[in-house]
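=== RUN LOG ===
request id: a7f3
mode: sequence -> structure
chains: 1
length: 231
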Amino acid sequence: MTEDVQRRLATVMAALKAEASDRVRDEMGPRFGIFTAHALGVRMEAMQALARRMGRDHGLAEALWATGLYEARITATMVDDPAAVTSEQMERWRSDFDNWAITDTVCLKLFDRSPLAAEKALAWTELHDEFGRRAGFALLAGMAIHRRGDAALFRQGLSRVEAHASDPRNFVKKAVNWALRAIGLKGDAELRAEARAVAERLAASEDRIARWVGRDAMKAFDRADARLNAR
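=== RESULT ===
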């Protein structure tokens, strides 16, 4: 670590500690389902403001991640340079995911901007650990929302949705549903139709988890159609 990175790391850590709140930390689990033993209790807006002040800095991002602190890692996602993110880094950070907030923030704020995003999304949906698989589907959802990736990727994504829609783990099933809804709402007309067809098949499934994934997606698609028809 260079002296400049050490100095900037010290600046960020001091700023995070100055913003720390025991009340915010204690509410993270009960209110938001963010369970981690390594948190200070800093509000998201404070981390966002700090990241804007620091600017893009890949070395700083890696140093922040290495602290293991929840807020430092969230801030790392906002200061890292997507062009500097490596495959090794993506795998290393992904192996550290231990709650939904870290998983989703890394995937939607940083990893989905990487040229490696499509490759990782498809690979991670096949992982067996809960947050690893969630990362794959969160990455698919983020790419659809931000309109990154091509139709071929999202068609493969829909295939993965259908394959894993019966996964009963809470953070996986919600991410599978999220990816399905994102592709169905943000894709082109053909993708929207294909996503609806997947949702209809899942809604008719004998598996209760798959039925929930399909039915919830259908509700989102119906609401979007109703808004469009009301214009």
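=== NOTES ===
Residues 208-230 form the longest helix (23 residues).
The chain has two domains: 1-80, 99-231.
=== END ===
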